[in-house]
Amino acid sequence: MQHYFIEKAKPTDGVVELPADVAKHFVRVLRSEIGEQVELVLSDHHVYLAELVAVEDRQARCKIIKDLDRNVELPVDITLVCGLPKQSKPEIIVQKSTELGVANVIFTSMERSIVNWNGKADKKISRLQEVAKSAAEQSHRNVIPKVSYANDLSMIDLASYNAKVIAYEEAAKQGEESNLSKVFSQMKTGESGLFVIGPEGGVSDSEMDWMTGEGFVSAGLGPRILRTETAPFYVLAAASYYFELSH
Q1: Which function does this protein serve (predicted)?
Q2: Strand order in the sheet with 3-5
């Protein structure tokens, strides 16, 4: 069943008018007819079952049938901080991380980043936010992750997170294999964690020293060295297993 976010729409007597882009896709692209059912996510982040009841010109209205009372979000909020990667990797990271349940993705310039977004960040973030929305609809999420950009690590509000972790390849090389699970075991439902993933060149010594001073825990992501676009998925899959499958 099709799933749309219409967070700005306000139901009147149980009937909601679909935004123009949603109406176009649902009615004209998918050729939906009166009586067709759809899932709609409103501003309260609840998923509602609705039915198409009217189509006039380019407008479409749906009647809310019931609240599906379904929440597929991770029990904890995971924010990924990704050192700027090359080429199409940001889109891959946002798309797949959204499907895996990420709450926020922050891209940032790090000392060993090969690319920079000077003068281009706003346009890139706008595009990546659309990628997140599409992936959230495909995976039937309750919320759309927020994608943002920080000029450097110091611009991120670290105080708002209950746990802070840096994925460090040297820790993996040295056989560290328990810190990630320890962090998860200390997090409670509703708490938030910040996980930093370095760019292709890795995390510099000075960045590592700064983050350690800010209370970050260094963690290896298994015994293998992961690509910058793979590490975020490891973190999210591990979180899903720990909080959703093993409890």
Answers
A1: Specifically methylates the N3 position of the uracil ring of uridine 1498 (m3U1498) in 16S rRNA. Acts on the fully assembled 30S ribosomal subunit.
A2: 3-5, 37-41, 47-56, 59-67, 15-17
Q: Would you say residue 70 has pLDDT above 70?
A: yes
Q: d(Cα 235, Cα 246) in Å, to the nearest integer?
A: 15
Q: Is 112 buried (19+), middle (13-18) or exposed (0-12) by CB count in 10 A?
A: middle
pTM for this entry: 0.93
**Please, what is the end-to-end C-alpha distance for the chain in angstroms?**
29
Nearest to 135 by CA among 159, 183, 102: 102
What pLDDT band is residue 177 in, cutting at 50, 70 and 90? low
Quick one: pLDDT at residue 225? Answer: 86
Question: By CB neighbour count within 10 A (0-12 exposed, 13-18 middle, 19+ buried), where does 198 fall?
Answer: buried
The helix/strand/coil state of 220 is coil
Spatial distance between the Cα atoms of 16 and 11, rounded to a whole number of angstroms:
4
C-alpha to C-alpha distance for 11 and 27, rounded to whole angstroms: 19
Domains and CATH numbers, the chain: 3-67 (2.40.240.20), 77-245 (3.40.1280.10)
- In this structure, are residues 167 and 219 in contact, taking their beta carbons and an 8 Å threshold? yes
CB neighbourhood size of 241 (10 A): 12
How do strand 59-67 and strand 37-41 relate by DSSP bridges?
Answer: unpaired
3-state secondary structure of 214: coil
User: In Å, how far are 42, 194, 236 from 186, measured between CA atoms?
Assistant: 33, 14, 16
The C-alpha atoms of residue 123 and residue 58 are separated, in whole angstroms, by: 29
* Crossing angle of helices 231-240 and 179-186, rounded to 10°: 50
